[in-house]
Amino acid sequence: MRLEDAAKLLHGTFLCGENQKETEIDRAYAADLLSDVLALTEERTTLITGTISPQVVKVADILNVIAIIFVRGKRPAPNLIEYARCLGIPLVFTEKTMFETCGLLYTQGVKPCKNRPVCRLK
Amino acid sequence: MQEQAGLPPEMSDRLVYRVTAGDVESGGNVSAAVKSELKIRGLPEKIARRAGIVVFEGEMNLILYANEGGTVQVDVLPNAVDIRIEDNGPGIEDVEQALTPGYSTAPEWALELGFGAGMGLVNMRNQCDRFEIQSRPGEGTWIHCVIERGRDAAE
């Protein structure tokens, strides 16, 4: 689905990167702890998180994440939004919980990352 | 605030960064710089991404746990990216336990910032073709990660 449609579905708003609203999102990963994100996120994933520390955008950049959806009404600081804008990573903000966000996107065909702990952790 | 020490990148294929303990705000700056430097040098995106993950976990460990911070050294070799992360303590009591997925000693404040999943060292090991760790309580921790350039380049 398109990022714009995801934002509408979540009653969300773009914090930046609305010019990338046509971006297709086909897989997502949801977590608050960044090392979990680093462990299991694939290329071109949409990140769903309630963490708004500056490192969220840095991690997204390292992983080539295509968009971040901030859930539970967690609104990142203006400098984080500006940093994401500079990196070209669109940010969407929603009041919905992580569970609701994942559920709504899943029903629209957004799939999980294929990486699994059992495959990666030896 | 991280500052770059040693030879500047344009004079060497060794990148050296100093990471300051407790400077959470700057966390991720070194990994972003390393990823960028590797891409400038023409390394494949996948190699730069793997190195970025290793360095991010390493620098956050230095910021969150090391008494006085530490250093991140990256050598861009013809066939590999060689990453060394060192500090002078406090050291890890039980390295095997620290390598157990989910094991964390992070304080509550770190969890609220998104750290302390207990996956840091595990992530580093998973991204490397060679991973070594030595630690001695009271002395420090030394981590050596090698990412071979050929493996992902062929994918």
Q: Key terms for this structure?
A:
heterodimer; A: 122 residues; alpha/beta; Udp-n-acetylmuramoylalanyl-d-glutamate--2,6- Diaminopimelate Ligase, Chain: A, domain 1; 6-stranded mixed beta sheet; 6 helices; 6 strands; globular; disordered C terminus; B: 155 residues; alpha+beta; Heat Shock Protein 90; 6-stranded antiparallel beta sheet
Tell me about this structure.
The complex is a heterodimer of chains A (122) and B (155). Chain A is of the alpha/beta class. Chain A has a single domain (3-112), classed as Udp-n-acetylmuramoylalanyl-d-glutamate--2,6- Diaminopimelate Ligase, Chain: A, domain 1 (3-Layer(aba) Sandwich). Chain A contains six helices and six strands; from the N terminus they run αββαβαβαβαβα. In chain A, strand 4 (67-70), helix 4 and strand 5 form a beta-alpha-beta unit. The model of chain A is unreliable at 118-122 (pLDDT under 50). Chain B is an alpha+beta fold and 155 residues long. Chain B has one domain: 2-Layer Sandwich (Heat Shock Protein 90). Chain B has six helices and six strands; from the N terminus they run E-E-H-H-E-E-H-H-H-E-E-H. A six-stranded antiparallel sheet of chain B has the order 1-2-3-4-6-5. The longest helix of chain B is centred in the middle third of the chain and has 21 residues, at 45-65. The interface between A and B is medium-sized, with 25 and 28 residues.
Secondary structure: elements and pairs:
The complex is a heterodimer of chains A (122) and B (155).
Chain A: H1 3-9, E1 13-16, E2 27-30, H2 34-40, E3 46-49, H3 55-63, E4 67-70, H4 78-87, E5 91-93, H5 98-107, E6 111-112, H6 117-120
Parallel strand pairs in A: 2-3, 2-6, 3-4, 4-5
Antiparallel strand pairs in A: 1-5
Chain B: E1 3-4, E2 14-19, H1 29-40, H2 45-65, E3 70-76, E4 80-87, H3 95-98, H4 108-112, H5 120-127, E5 130-136, E6 140-148, H6 149-153
Antiparallel strand pairs in B: 1-2, 2-3, 3-4, 4-6, 5-6
